[in-house]
């Protein structure tokens, strides 16, 4: 029986997510980890160095070259356009979609004399609505690096994805959760994606792939793509299903960030991509 090679970033969270895939695949799997450009450049924000596509470039190269059979990613870290011949082939069941507030170890109250650290313009803009008096500053690095910077006193709090904290066993660090009404998540947040080569046999992924997460992700990514929003752009989208009825929420931000609009649309799940386009155009063209 052929051993399948799974490509992953070498961070602890990325490896845990790749192990989720390996556990669901009924054939032998070998994990191949690598450091990406996005992992190595930590002194600048993502929009200054080319966006989160830098987290997948090396993995895409290995996949295209046949060095690995599939690659595993946090869907929210993936560019909205996939390279030719390297489609997303499976989506995990969605975990907790919310963002979470994390305080310095041992503290029980938010200290606004120090900045709140977050890694995206999406969070920064929405945090300013919740905490107008707060200083919101960028923070880079993997989850453990960010927590170290917090506990050293560089920040008064962090905002991180709850799903990642749970997967790392760090849910005890969460001070409070933000509902999607408070902070709308990134497109694809809390979903693990598997990328493959066009024409590959996908039967081994059937136990991992989740159709509900797929349809929600298609709507969210369609919305973001229509607004030309890369992974580091201040765009947010969150879809949920009620039976076969899909409800999509989105946030549009103008280029100079002077306009922030929220809206929603809904329809049959089979129209997920069209609903994303519809809501994006509706918010962009609103007066």
Low-confidence stretches: 40-46
- Percent range of helical residues: 25-40%
How many domains, in number, for the residues?
3
CATH topology of the largest domain, anyone? D-Maltodextrin-Binding Protein, domain 2
The side-by-side strand order for the widest beta sheet comes to 2-1-3-10-4
The proportion of residues in beta strands is 25-35%
Structure class: alpha/beta
Radius of gyration: 19 Å
Approximate shape:
globular
Mean pLDDT: 92
**Main beta-sheet strand count, sense and barrel state:** 5 strands, mixed
Describe this structure as you would to a colleague.
This protein is α/β, with parallel strands linked by helices. The chain folds into 3 domains: 1-93 and 191-209, Periplasmic binding protein-like II (D-Maltodextrin-Binding Protein, domain 2, 3-Layer(aba) Sandwich); 99-178, 3-Layer(aba) Sandwich (D-Maltodextrin-Binding Protein, domain 2), CATH 3.40.190; 210-287, Porphobilinogen deaminase, C-terminal domain (Double Stranded RNA Binding Domain). It has helices at residues 12-24, 37-40, 46-49, 57-64, 121-130, 143-151, 162-167, 211-226, 272-285; strands spanning 4-9, 29-34, 70-74, 88-91, 99-103, 116-118, 136-138, 157-161, 174-178, 192-196, 236-242, 245-253, 260-268. The strands form 3 sheets. Strands 2-1-3-10-4 form a 5-stranded mixed sheet, with helices on both faces. Strands 7-6-8-5-9 form a 5-stranded mixed sheet, with helices on both faces. Helix 8 runs parallel beside helix 9. The longest helix has 16 residues, at 211-226. The chain starts with a strand and ends with a helix. Residues 216-284 form the Porphobilinogen deaminase C-terminal domain. Monomer.
């Amino acid at each position: 029986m052929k051993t399948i090679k799974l490509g992953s970033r070498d961070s602890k969270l990325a490896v845990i997510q790749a192990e989720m895939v390996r556990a669901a695949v009924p054939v032998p799997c070998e994990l191949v980890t690598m450091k990406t450009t996005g992992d190595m450049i930590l002194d600048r924000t993502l929009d200054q160095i080319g966006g989160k596509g830098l987290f997948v470039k090396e993995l895409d190269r290995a996949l295209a070259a046949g060095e690995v059979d599939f690659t595993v990613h946090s869907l929210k870290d993936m560019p909205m356009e996939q390279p030719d011949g390297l489609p997303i082939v499976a989506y995990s069941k969605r975990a907790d979609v919310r963002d979470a507030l994390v305080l310095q170890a041992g503290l029980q109250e938010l200290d606004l004399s120090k900045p709140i650290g977050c890694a995206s313009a999406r969070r920064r803009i929405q945090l300013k609505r919740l905490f107008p008096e707060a200083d919101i500053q960028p923070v880079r690095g993997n989850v453990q690096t960010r927590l170290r910077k917090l506990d050293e006193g560089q920040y008064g709090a962090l905002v991180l994805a709850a799903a990642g904290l749970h997967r790392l066993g760090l849910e005890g660090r969460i001070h409070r959760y933000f509902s999607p009404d408070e902070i709308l998540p990134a497109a694809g947040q809390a979903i693990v994606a598997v990328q493959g080569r066009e024409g590959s046999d996908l039967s081994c992924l059937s136990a991992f792939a989740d159709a509900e997460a797929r349809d929600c992700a298609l709507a969210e990514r369609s919305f973001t793509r229509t607004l030309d929003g890369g992974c580091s752009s201040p765009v947010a989208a969150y879809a949920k299903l009620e039976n076969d009825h899909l409800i999509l929420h989105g946030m549009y931000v103008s280029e100079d960030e002077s306009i922030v609009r929220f809206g929603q649309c809904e329809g049959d799940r089979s129209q997920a991509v069209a609903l994303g386009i519809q809501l994006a155009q509706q918010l962009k063209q609103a007066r």
